[in-house]
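Running this now, will post back.
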Amino acid sequence: MQGGDRQGILLTPYRNYLGDSVIGAWQWLDEHRLGLAVEVGESEAYKPIAILNTQLAVMVLTLAVALFLGPLLPGILWRRVVLVKSGQTVGAYRIERKLGEGGMAEVFLGRHERLGRPAAVKIVKGGQREEIEQRFEREARLLASLRQRLPSSPSQPVRPRHAPSTTSSCSPANASVGAPRPCASCCPILGS
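Update: finished.
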């Protein structure tokens, strides 16, 4: 063999002498004055590529589903999977017990781990995330405005503005509008 190609690869499938669809490679070995050719069936040779294509399609489909359902999953998982228990830490608070539950959240008695102060810890449920976040923010602003009217020291008693110093009644008939009032069920929680 003079001056021609010494090796080659044919990746485009062709029919071999048996009529099977194959791809092949060949090389001329000068020292043996011999040509070597190898043929592999098309389906066998390209099977790994077919597997990779299938896996890529599955990954793209999974990513599309995750992007579509992603915003909904935290609420669904939180509601059904994540349980808050006594002794568990949420943020800076250690949960002591459940106080109640409403349409948008559960309220727990918690204690700040560093300060040792009791606090009501509200954990928002999943679901319609935007609406719940807006409601929660409104409620937080309302509570913040009420806290500004409370005494600065937790050791000071909380009394309605109209009541004498010995009275701690929280009857709606005795309360002035907008005035903070203690409630018998709140006093143990607040430590009063």
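The CA atoms of residues 48 and 90 lie 48 Å apart. More later if anyone needs it.
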